[in-house]
Amino acid sequence: MNPHRDVTGGESVARLFDRTINFLHRVSGLLVVFNVSSGICHLGDMSVK
User: Comparing 4-8, 13-17, 33-37, which segment has the lowest mean pLDDT?
Assistant: First the structure.
């Protein structure tokens, strides 16, 4: 076993995990904005009717 290789592998996994978390945060943020905007439009349609 090469401990140095394990260290670099762990760092790459941690970076990939951080990137995935950041990506999920961005996607969830966009989904929240989309849901809120669509909800406001839906309420506007209901109030118009």
Answer: 4-8
Gap between the Cα atoms of 18 and 1, Å rounded: 26
DSSP-derived 3-state class of residue 25: helix
C-alpha span between 49 and 39 (Å, rounded) = 15
Does the predicted TM-score (pTM) go above 0.70?
Answer: no
- Cα separation, 22 vs 13, in Å, equals 14
| Cα dihedral: 28, 32, 35, 36 (round 10) | -170
